[in-house]
Amino acid sequence: MKITDLKTAIIRGVGPAVLVKVYSDEGIWGIGECYPSAPGNGIQNIVRHMKELLIGEDPRNVDMLYEKIKRAFLFTGAQAGAVVTALTGIESALWDLTAKSLGVPIYQMLGGKFRDKIRIYADCHAGRDESPEAYAEEAQRVVAMGYNAIKFDVDDIDNPDKLDRWNWSVTPKELEGMVKRVAAVREAVGPYIDIAIDMHGRYNIDAACKVAKEMEPFNLMWLEEPVPPENVDAMLKVKQSTSTPICAGENLYTRFGFRELLQKQAVDVIMPDVAHTGGLSEARKVANMAEVYYIPFAPHCVSSPIGMMAACHVCASVPNFLVLEFHGLRSPQWNDLIVGDKPLIQNGYITLPDKPGLGVELNDEVARRYVHTRMSTAYFDD
Ligand code: MG
């Protein structure tokens, strides 16, 4: 089997979803998604440059082709960011193509599955406003949909209680507001729903430690990115200061990007994004590295159903999977982007399909309507 072509589309999934289709001379094609860490058309252009390294190759040599592209881009950003994101879309498509050619689900090629359904947490973002009552109301609404784990943001750079949007501090009033919102959510959902709180890497060590300490009574599933992602020692200081579990990793790429974080055990939970950290193989390797430290794997995800299902195959294949993010509560088109049984998430879980490959098919008619025309008008016809 040989790769004959590669085509792309950018659709509105949650944010812009860059979709990559890889075609073979046997008439089988595979689809993958990557989530842009740069404008989607930038990623699309990098994917198109990578195409020449794939034509004529056997698509079933997924890891070798990943390495071939990565090495070719060694001096142009193959360590993190846009290049790895583009490579991720291709790698995921190669898995779909290979699994389809062998007539098995992708998870079967990753060593099989530990579970039949994947636990999902819903990213609620915020309430209709920043009041504790609005947060509580949103928490109850989402839990009523069947989720047993939810996430809220408590950082807001436009918060009037924040005296300076640049200095990474937390004011006492801002901190009080955060605590009241989280307390309201915990009160609203009771003790048995898992709650994650995201700080988006916008605080310094002192501020992060103060927030983490104040969160201790609420038994969080985790506090996410309390400090920016670049300084692992800073993350470790926050972790050592509190009994609140600390989670990070959505801004890290490849197993090499996770090495220091894991070696120093600077977090309690890792959250690689399967749609940009390097692909399915790479995400699985990161999960395996985390397992050595008994650290759970809880992928970040802002993908369309295509990227979300790719993440599900990885989550199925590792013992230390905890929970997978769903970010599409406010994207009404999300389920319509695919054909088949819907909604994809039922009672807070995605059941793994047993069809060959990814196991979900894009609804071309709907997806075409959601082409991200500001970035690119192409729909697999470039
Ligand atoms: Mg986050």
Low-confidence stretches: none
Instruction: Find the structural class using helix and strand composition.
Output: alpha/beta
CATH architecture of the largest domain: Alpha-Beta Barrel
Largest sheet: 9 strands, mixed
- The number of domains: 2
CATH topology (fold) name of the largest domain:
TIM Barrel
**What is the CATH top level name of the largest domain?**
Alpha Beta
Beta fraction of the residues? 15-25%
Q: What separation lies between the terminal Cα atoms?
A: 23 Å
Compounds present?
Answer: magnesium ion
Mean pLDDT: 96
Rg (CA only): 20 Å
Helix content: 25-40%
CATH homolog superfamily of the largest domain: Enolase-like C-terminal domain
The total count of strands amounts to: 14
Quick recap:
The protein is α/β, with parallel strands linked by helices and 382 residues long.
Would you mind describing this structure in some detail?
There is one protein chain. With 382 residues, this protein is of the alpha/beta class. It folds into two domains: 3-104 and 363-369, Enolase-like, domain 1 (2-Layer Sandwich); 109-357, Enolase-like C-terminal domain (TIM Barrel). The chain is built from twelve helices and 14 strands. It has helices at 40-50, 62-72, 82-102, 106-109, 132-143, 172-189, 205-215, 232-240, 254-263, 280-292, 305-316, 364-369, and strands at residues 3-12, 16-24, 29-34, 117-125, 149-153, 194-198, 222-224, 246-248, 269-270, 324-326, 338-339, 345-346, 349-351, 361-362. Strand 7, helix 8 (232-240) and strand 8 (246-248) form a beta-alpha-beta unit. Helix 1 packs across helix 3 and helix 9 (254-263) packs parallel to helix 10. It is globular and about 65 Å long. It starts with a strand and ends in a 13-residue tail after the last helix. Magnesium ion is lined by residues 198, 200, 224-225, 250.
